[in-house]
Design goal:
The chain is α+β, with helices and mostly antiparallel strands. It has 2 domains: about 1-40; about 45-95, Roll (SH3 type barrels), CATH 2.30.30. It has helices spanning about 1-40, 90-95, 100-115; strands at about 45-50, 55-60, 65-70, 75-80, 85. β1 (about 45-50) and β2 (about 55-60) form a beta hairpin. It starts with a helix and ends with a helix. Residues about 100-110 have low confidence and may be disordered.
Length: about 120
């Protein structure tokens, strides 16, 4: 009788451990592996986005960091772990420019009307 009670108590615990593994541990390891592969594939000339949101072009690759140029003549040293995303140089140059918001388009006719009244 106690044997059945022990199995009855351990079975939900085992199910909980399996669910925890498949919903939390495994996906996190997969994301970590993808991030490490992305960091290993970064070469000189690649455009990267840092965790802080800065866009920059990799100018030099070091053991634990990158030297990236975030503006003309502005070079900074960034730890590899702080790189969020890699974009190819072609993608960065051809990325769509932000369009004017509808609000800005609506305001223009209002400005023209006030000029006509004066």
């Amino acid at each position: 009788m106690q044997q059945g009670g022990l199995v009855g108590m351990l079975l939900p615990l085992a199910v909980f451990v399996v669910i925890f593994y498949f919903l939390i541990v495994r996906p996190q390891k997969k994301r970590q592996r993808q991030h490490e592969e992305m960091l290993a594939s970064i070469r000189k000339g690649d455009v990267v986005i840092t965790a802080g949101g800065f866009w920059g072009t990799v100018r030099e690759v070091k053991d634990d960091s990158f030297i990236i140029e975030i503006a003309d003549g502005v070079k900074v040293r960034i730890l590899k772990s702080s790189i969020q995303m890699k974009r190819s140089a072609v993608d960065a140059e051809t990325s769509p420019k932000p369009k004017k918001s509808e609000k800005a388009v609506e305001e223009k006719p209002v400005e023209e009307e006030t000029k006509k009244e004066n």
